[in-house]
Amino acid sequence: MGGQNGILPLLFISLCLFITFTTAAKRYTVLRIEVSSKDQLDYLNEQYLNSSQFDFWKEPSSVGEQVHIMVKDSLLHNFVEQLDSRGIKHKVMIDDVQKVIQKRANDSAKFYENKLYRDAPENRIAFNLAKYHSFAETINYLNALAITYPDRVHVMPIGITHEGRQIPLIKIGTRSRADKPGIWIDGGIHAREWISPAVVLYFISQLVTEYDRDPTMRNLVDSMDWYIVPLLNPDGYEYSRSSSDVEVRLWRKNRSPTMCTQVSTGLFSPPTTQCCQGVDLNRNFDWFFGQVGSSTDPCSEIYNGRFAFSEPETRSVRDFVTGQNGKIKTFLTFHSYSQILMYPFGHQLRTYPNDVNDLSATANKAAQALQSMYGTKYTVGTGADTLYPASGGSEDWAKGQMNIKYSFLFELRPEDNVWDGFLLAENQIIPTSRETWEAVKIIADQTLQTF
Ligand code: ARG
Ligand code: ZN
């Protein structure tokens, strides 16, 4: 009896605390930090980078660069005090992330089908390329293309995710010659980077539906085989679409089953167990797996998984690419954000393949073509030199392990000084797609000249 009397008020108090904390935790702010010395850089890296409480939208790379960090309201005050006491300059980039997510959802619902950006009216398939689409809509579009254009399109699954979704690959190419070079494109490896699958769908639509009108497209489809996975992480993507909650919309990893770790909470308290879901797929490839810029903590945004290729999504890429027996000469993978075009290697500073001059020349040409459309500026370099070292990434694996000559990673719009980061508005999809397509065509041309 006595025990029960003690437990009820306790339960009540914890319920109140729970409610206060969960409602308070709803508010998130993104800070833009200007790093002006090596000390400041080290401080941010050491204190916050590995904390699951701070979500780095843009990680600390080097002095003079910006860092974007999303912080819970409950930690904001203290964090700002720490920054101030060290003289680290900061500004509010997004005051209330939840509000922006809500606004994006409302705008999207209000947006009527825009005829201009539909597939051309003479095409039989209506698909609005100016919107972010669900996994189901994406699959339906790919299947419609395969049925409508059987001479140039085939759709096949390359694997099955943890939640049972098929990962679709669309192959675009006519049967013109046997020894055509292959080009791989994937989008949506990170769930919250919605612009990535949208841009890749635009490429698909250009190749398939402009084939009859545009001699450039005809040449690209006749002389090459395109292997395109517009949505490599459908579980994570669908999860990020499933609610406007900040933690949900900004999900990055896949949805692998929960893993637990022991965390020490202090010298005198026993370790506690923490359990989290999801692997960072772009840390799960077999290239310097588990080294710099990845984490063994399942609760980290850059958790690399139990071993290289532990995840069905990364295994599908490996198995498909390996199965092409060297046919794939170019590997392009699309992320957001920061406007960077990267070539290998990203796992370590100042580390380059032997033919780095070919890669950097092609990347610079591609970035110029991209810029020529709307003036959008890209930085060109390795991931490690331009952003931060990260091991186990697919662009490195494609080059280092698979020996694919032209391997590039795009970090799409927006740039650092635009405030909305991962929450890029839908009216940016078409311009982003158009300019990026200019860069991809340069890389495809270069592939044709080399092979
Ligand atoms: N934002 C991407 C990621 O975190 C970029 C990785 C680029 N590669 C690199 N080695 N830095 O996966
Ligand atoms: Zn990414």
TrEMBL record:
**Which controlled-vocabulary keywords does the entry list?**
Carboxypeptidase, Disulfide bond, Hydrolase, Metal-binding, Metalloprotease, Protease, Signal, Zinc
Gene Ontology MF term list: metallocarboxypeptidase activity; zinc ion binding
Q: Peptidase M14 domain location, by residue?
A: 131-447
Q: Which SUPFAM superfamilies match?
A: Protease propeptides/inhibitors, Zn-dependent exopeptidases
- UniProt KW Protease keyword: yes
Span of the signal peptide: 1-24
Enumerate the active-site residues: E411
Cofactor entry: Zn(2+)
GO BP of this protein:
proteolysis
CDD domains recorded for this chain? M14_CP_A-B_like
Pfam entry (one)? ShK
Q: Which GO terms describe its cellular component?
A: extracellular space
Q: Which InterPro entries match?
A: CARBOXYPEPT_ZN_1, CARBOXYPEPT_ZN_2, M14A-like_propep, M14A_act_pep, Peptidase_M14, ShKT_dom
Q: Write down the PANTHER family for this protein, in alphabetical order.
A: PROTEASE FAMILY M14 CARBOXYPEPTIDASE A,B, SHKT DOMAIN-CONTAINING PROTEIN
Which family does the UniProt entry place this protein in? Belongs to the peptidase M14 family.
Q: Can you say what this protein is called?
A: Zinc carboxypeptidase A 1
